[in-house]
Amino acid sequence: MNRVLTYLSPGELDLREMPKPILLHPEDAIVRPVASSTCDLDIMIIQGRTPFKGPFDIGHECIGEIIETGEGVRRFYPGQLVVVSWHISCGQVTGVVKD
């Protein structure tokens, strides 16, 4: 079962079922979270101290296991543990890991 924590409004969260993820591009990987954490931004969002409006999935820091990789992925493999970065990246900037 795949579930996602969804922020609805200040103080209101919902654990929702989601469809099984699929690979869309050869460079994609599917990662199953093993352990996750919260950060100060998560708390501020839940408390309603940000301008963000729900609903949206919350949480962005975790350690996960690679479940599946696309044909173009060479450096990562199923079963490998990885850290999901706290920031969003296009993967095109020098220094950002992209396989």
UniProtKB/TrEMBL annotation:
The keyword Mitochondrion does not apply. Keywords: Metal-binding, Oxidoreductase, Zinc. Its cofactor is Zn(2+). It holds the Pfam family ADH_N. Residues 26-92 form the Alcohol dehydrogenase-like N-terminal domain. InterPro entries: ADH-like_N, ADH_Zn_CS, GroES-like_sf. GO terms for molecular function: oxidoreductase activity; zinc ion binding. It comes from the Bacteria. This is Alcohol dehydrogenase, catalytic domain, GroES-like family. It comes from Leptospira noguchii serovar Autumnalis str. ZUN142.
